[in-house]
Amino acid sequence: MTNIKVEVHHILRTLTEIVSPSMNQREIFLRHVAQTSPSPLGLEIVKAEGALLFDANGKEFIDLIGGISVANTGHRHPKVIEAIKQQLEAYLHIMVYGEFIETPQLQYAKLLTDHLPASLNSVYFTNSGAEAVEGAMKLAKRVTNRTEIIAFNKSYHGSTQGALSVIGDEYWRNAFRPLLPGVLHLEYNSFESLGEITEQAACVIAETAQGEAGIIAPSKEWMQALRKKCDETGVLLILDEIQTGFGRTGKLWGFEHFDIVPDILLLGKALGGGMPLGAFIAGKKLMWQLTEDPVLGHITTFGGHPVCCAAGMAAMQALLDEGMMNEVKKKEELFRALLVHPPVGGHSPKIKSIRSFGLWMAVEFENFETNKKVIDHCIENGVLVDWFLFAPGCLRISPPLTISEEQIKQAVKTIMQACDKM
Ligand SMILES: Cc1ncc(COP(=O)(O)O)c(C=O)c1O
After folding, report:
1. Contact in structure between 74 and 399 (CB atoms under 8 Å)
2. Three-state DSSP state, 49
3. Are 404 and 410 a contacting pair, CB within 8 Å?
4. pLDDT of the residue at 342
C-alpha cells in the first residue's frame, strides 16, 4: 500500500513538473538554494527593465525596492548593458586586485574621485558592502594604532563577522558570538552619546542616515558635532553610504546634506550599476597604510572586477548625465502627497507617519501584522514592497530613481487599496 502511495506521488510530481515547469523551479529553489528565511518572497522574475519586473507568468511588478537600493539608475540601463558588453570583449578576471593596471578600475576610480572632496582620493574596490566595512575598520585600526570601534544602535553594516559586530541589534549579533571585542554602541543622533567618543577609539562607523532602523536622518547639527568630536579625539569618521550614496537622497553623496566630509567613505549596492561592487575610499596617505608593514594589508581576488567597474562607471555616468538626481525631490514629494490614509477628513489613520530622505522612505503602520498585510496585498497586485530589519512595522520604499510619476501614482493607489481593506 505504502509503495503504491509513493509511486502515485512520484507520478503526480513528474506530471506536475511537466505541466508546470515554474513549480519545478520553485522546488529546486527551496531545496537547493540556501535559504535566508523560512518565508522568502519566492517570485520568479524572468526580466527586469527600468522600474519594472516581470515574472514567469508574464505578471508585471512596479519595483518600489530596487533590489534594496541597488537599481538606482533603473534595471538594465542601456548604457550599463553596453559597457558590460564592451568589457566582455576585452577581458573578465585577469588578476587579483591591485596588481595589474585595469582600465575599467582606474577610470571608475578617477570618475568617483573627481566627484568627491579632494581628501577622498584613493579608492579600494571590494566585492560587497560588508567587505568595504571590513577593509575600512582594518584601515582605521592600522592608521590610529587603536582598537576600540564605536558604532550606533539600530545601525546596519552587513553580515560578515566584523560588520556583524558593529550592527546595532543584539538579536542579529547574539547567535554568532564571540564577535569583535572592543565595540561600543551608542545612541544615534544623540548629543549625549558624543561624550563617549574618546582617544581610545580608532573609528566611529555610522550610516549617514540609518536605513534598516526605518530611515532615520540625523540633524545637521548632530552630524557636524560628530565630525568635530572625531577631529578633537583623533578618531576616524567612517560614513557608511552603501544605501545613502549614489543619488538616493537627491545628492550624489548623503554627507553633502550635512556639510561634512568623512575620513573614510563606504559605498556599495548601486555602485556597480546592478553588478557586485563595493568600495572604501580614503585619502591616499591613509590608504597607504594597507600597502606596507604588512604588505597586502587587505587583499581580494575579485574586488573591483573589470566587468563590475565598467558597469558601475556607466551607471554613474548615466546618473550624472541624465539628471536623475534633479527629479528625486519632486518624486519624494509626490509619494508623500499621495501617501495619506485616510484621505483628508477621514478617520482612523492607517498610515501613522512617513520618514523620508530622498527616494528612500519608511511608511509606518501600527505594527508588523498590518504592514505584512499591506505588503502581501501590494505584491499580489503587482507592486513590490518590503519591510525594514529593525522597523518591521514600516513599509520600505526605495525605487529606481528613474521611476515615472505615472508608476508612482499607480503604485501608491495599490498601497491605498491595501489600507482601505484593513
Ligand atoms: C548601510 C549598509 N551597509 C552595509 C551593507 C552590507 O552590504 P552587502 O550586503 O553588500 O554586504 C548594507 C546592506 O544592506 C547596508 O544597507
Report:
1. no
2. strand
3. no
4. 76
